[in-house]
Amino acid sequence: EAHSAFRTWRRRQQYYSENKSYISLLFCLLSCASSFGTRYTPDWTSLDSRPLPEWYDEVKFGIFVHWGVFSVPAFGSEWFWWYWKVALKPEYILFMVKNYPPGFSYTDFAPDFHAQFFDPDEWADIFEASGAKYVVLTSKHHEGFTNWGSQTSWNWNSVDNGPHRDLVGDLGAAIRKRSLHYGLYHSLYEWFNPIYLSDKQSGFKTQEFVEKKAMPELYDLVNRYKPDLIWSDGDWEAPDTYWNSTGFLAWLYNDSPVKDVVVTNDRWGLGCYCKHGGYYNCADKFTPGQLPNHKWEKCQSVDTISWGYRRNMKLSELMDLPSIIKDMVYVVALGGNYLLNVGPTADGMIAPVFEERLRGIGAWLKVNGEAIYSTKPWRVQAENATVPVWYTSKSSTVYAILTSNPMQNSFKLLTPKTSHNTVVTLLGNPEPLKWAPLQTSGLIVLLPDLPFSPAEAWTLKLDA
């Protein structure tokens, strides 16, 4: 039998040697066929079937940056132009009457968007220190001003006006030097673009704005800057068929230079959010009450009133560090990503109060990051113990994150199932903690003196 098997092996080796080139060609053809089979067609059934690139679920925490001409008046909101000219909010009108001469237009703000203190490496250092793994910059907000030299935004962009530099490119280079992922926010619509308003007047039966402005800019952003993430917005007035969203996404997923890594959100036309696209943003500051069945992201601003910088912001209107950490822990426990926004000043500075918040998050993540990064929702997401507890997991390890100090030496966790091999530690404290099982399920842990934490959150690690 051994002799027969040897002869069979020899015949196969000889066949392979004689037909090596043909076999290699066959494997190539099979590979190509497989590749063609995974191409996405411009319809939601096909596009929604695309698996989300793994990096996005692993990173968990990102920084959102709202920056534009609205940073010059720096009053009220990044929707300043709209509130002043359309909503006619009295406080905006009064602000202009008191501070600017008659006839002053919104476009007159642009030359003062000079960004003379903008140091992209300094920004990137702050973002890296925060523990964030991706950064999303506004390439264009609803005002239509582009933060790069868009060929379709003559004199209403950061190269021809204001800073006279490529803000998108400069920040992107600094971010990538630190191995962070770089994403771009892009508003599909523009409040006062006459071409868009003409399409709107037609009931969106014409698509001149899409063909001449919105889509050329999106293609340009992808080809020029190769973003890892596209955060679409400004879609809600028209259906996705007007925006040609499915056609763009099919190109993005099939043929673009970022087709294998790019991640997109769900704002691609009226009725799309929380339904179509990549991960779901749903509404701003989306906060689900239970574990969603689709990957999602919560975008939240340190300034609870505005996404853009406000000169009139008050400390009481800003999220403090414990509130941010509690919010992030909640989001990650429910399977989401946390995208925290800061609004830089018109001269290119990140306000010290924002920097303080970001560095505080980073300090907490240096100790507790393993309970956040690359984790999955556990079978139970939360427990109402003597203090709120949120759970995350990684393989057979379970993390119980306490979002306030229990102020006692012993602490009960009712949900985990233990064995004789279970080891309990406090992140930041290498010594195992003493514990005992409860009668039915769970355990009681003997806590050490908890170290000081400005974030007011600590993590128990349970290894099975």
UniProtKB/TrEMBL annotation:
Keywords: Glycoprotein, Glycosidase, Hydrolase, Lipid metabolism, Lysosome, Membrane, Signal, Transmembrane, Transmembrane helix. Its main location: other. It is found in: Lysosome. Pfam families: Alpha_L_fucos, Fucosidase_C. GO terms for cellular component: lysosome. Residues 35-370 form the Glycoside hydrolase family 29 N-terminal domain. The chain crosses the membrane at residues 21-41, 61-84. Residues 381-462 form the Alpha-L-fucosidase C-terminal domain. Its EC number is 3.2.1.51. GO terms for biological process: fucose metabolic process; glycoside catabolic process; lipid metabolic process. The record marks C299 as: May be important for catalysis. GO terms for molecular function: alpha-L-fucosidase activity. SUPFAM superfamilies: (Trans)glycosidases. InterPro entries: FUC_metazoa-typ, Fucosidase_C, GH, Glyco_hydro_29, Glyco_hydro_29_CS, Glyco_hydro_29_N, Glyco_hydro_b. It catalyses: a neolactoside IV(2)-alpha-Fuc-nLc4Cer(d18:1(4E)) + H2O = a neolactoside nLc4Cer(d18:1(4E)) + L-fucose; an alpha-L-fucoside + H2O = L-fucose + an alcohol; a neolactoside IV(2)-alpha-Fuc-nLc4Cer(d18:0) + H2O = a neolactoside nLc4Cer(d18:0) + L-fucose. Belongs to the glycosyl hydrolase 29 family. Alpha-L-fucosidase is responsible for hydrolyzing the alpha-1,6-linked fucose joined to the reducing-end N-acetylglucosamine of the carbohydrate moieties of glycoproteins. Homotetramer. This is Alpha-L-fucosidase. It comes from Sinocyclocheilus grahami. The lineage of its organism: Eukaryota, Metazoa, Chordata, Craniata, Vertebrata.
